[in-house]
């Protein structure tokens, strides 16, 4: 994309994407966006400022979420997220440099990866376990319907690639209500559910990067189930950097997942009682 101020555009897209460019030169700045490349070129004087801008289309996990994030960073809304049929959702914004960014969610094709790659992943993980009174099927049903015990509202599509959006605070503006944009990675009905996850809005540096969570259910003696929750996918360089918000994010979820399992136990006790 052509930009009139390369340094300003580099700073804006670094904040939007939550990462630094992999290639940074006065004549070109390149970002890795999940196996694709977003390139910024300085605008030639002969092109004239604006010059109609460039048009870029990104395939994303959640078009509405991507638009809300871009607007939060200073983009201008061109077209809100719209279902154009077949569950395909499109929308667009204009960046501060006059370029059009189109966002597309197509459930029939896998979007670019948003989580860290295995090569960058830390061996550290958050692991929580609880033995709860309740059948495996009953507890599975609760993870599939978190609005019944954990959050105000939820949008869960029980399929690989389906939404796993939990709204902890629906009064916030879109993109800042909870786990918008998170997706189901895999599932074994009644036994295992894994999904991408994000940090809370209070941690903006890590908010728009994805880690992932695996929930496993093991049936014990009659009427009891072991729940094992593993939160992994943490970037090694982030956890090793005390100046970043990754250590704070890790500590946040160390506490939060314990509270989630306690909430699940309280709900099961209330239902039984």
Task: Summarize the structure in words.
With 273 residues, the chain is α+β, with helices and mostly antiparallel strands. The chain has two domains: 104 residues, Roll (2,3-Dihydroxybiphenyl 1,2-Dioxygenase, domain 1); 155 residues, Alpha-D-Glucose-1,6-Bisphosphate, Chain A, domain 4 (2-Layer Sandwich). It has six helices and 15 strands. A five-stranded antiparallel beta sheet has the order 9-15-14-13-12, covered by helices on one side. Strand 3 and strand 4 form a beta hairpin. The longest helix has 27 residues. The radius of gyration is 21 Å and the shape is elongated.
- First CA to last CA: what distance? 61 Å
Mean pLDDT: 85
Question: Helical percent range?
Answer: 10-25%
The major pleated sheet works out as: 5 strands, antiparallel
Query: The CATH topology of the largest domain is what?
Result: Alpha-D-Glucose-1,6-Bisphosphate, Chain A, domain 4
Rg for CA atoms = 21 Å
Q: What percent strand?
A: 25-35%
Q: What is the overall silhouette?
A: elongated
Strand line-up of the largest beta sheet: 9-15-14-13-12
List the helices and strands in order. EHEEEEHEEEEHEEEEHEEHH
- How many runs of DSSP E, i.e. beta strands? 15
